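User: Teach me something about this protein's shape.
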Amino acid sequence: MTTQQDRWTVGPETVRMLELGHPWVVADAYTKKWPAGQAGQTVALCDGQGRFLATALLDDQQERVVARVLARERIRLERPWLVKRLQAAIELRREHADLTESDAYRLVNAEGDGLPGLTVDRYADYLMIQLYSSAWRPHLKLITQILQELLSPQGIYEKQRPRKTRELEAAGDSKNYGRLLTGGVAPQRLEVRENGLTFLVSLEQGLNTGLFLDQRRNRADLIKRVEGKRVLNLFSYTGAFSVAAAAGGASLVTSVDASPGYTEWARANFGVNRLNPKKHEFIVGDCLAVLGELLKSKKSYDLILMDPPSFSTTAKSRFTTRGGTSDLVAAALPLLSGGGLLLASSNHQKVDLADYLKELRRGALQAGSDLRVISLFGQPEDFPYPVTFPEGRYLKYAVCVKA
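Assistant: First, the predicted structure itself:
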């Protein structure tokens, strides 16, 4: 029986969202009346009549999302429940993800595995935990212990998520945001396998590890499309797509990124795969400015890939996915040969697929080109999301042909 003391009442709009299966409680006039609670506390969510709706994990009450649903029944967030959820996540990958040539992938995908705000990634013999909610901080030690028991990794790291992550990443912040929670220290540049290729990652340095695991399947698709082709990779980061293109037999891969550090990392990734970086091109610069220079030089490519961060700032320009994609497409299409492929990708959660395709349309019209979508992909099987949580389907990857 729910008592008045442990009743956390939500308003009609939140009741409707919870009944539709959404896992978040967003701050509103009703949540402002909640009793004082601690982040990480489990609470019973009820409607105005006291009807139980769900067990939720209380978040920082200053955040936009103030609670995250753990279950539609009453549960206790203790070892047996967590073991069951983590085992289910591990089993899903074993059954449904093609990981035969990969040892870098996602093991727990937050809402997609019933653990909202918590992710766990595997990098070879190490695990990386990320907390996207302070609600999990009090439970981190128990989660670490269970993962150690279930998987026996050499070490488990946490990569911290500071505020304004996108802006810090765009500025090339390379501080040590990773810390070892248990086990042995990983090499500063750890070798991992993806689709049979080798990549160098950093579990300590930087906001990201150097390899975006959600693009694994899309890189495998790229390998099949590039033999004998001239490839331009914009926002190339540490060169994972570039390595895939070179390994797939591309005659030339031109990688463009604003960061000298990431560009050197990309060269190193070529090296560990025994791909001669001297046979390919690496350009440090703002992508829009470089596109203009390549056009002046009358360069032409058979395949152009663009996978920009959702936010990026350089000395010459400021890029955002919303509104910036069309300009990028318009600047790239004159460099693409007739019948060539444009691979356009975005991980911006707040731009849905329909809006993203409109950005591609604007860019094509601006360039006076006929652009046709032949395939649409998202994230791979190790990044599941509930059908009741559209925010979970964030990755958009469009394969387009220029007529």
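Now, about its shape. The first strand starts at residue 7 and ends at 9. The CA atoms of residues 371 and 402 lie 5 Å apart. If you'd like, I can walk through any region in more detail.
User: That's plenty for now, thanks!
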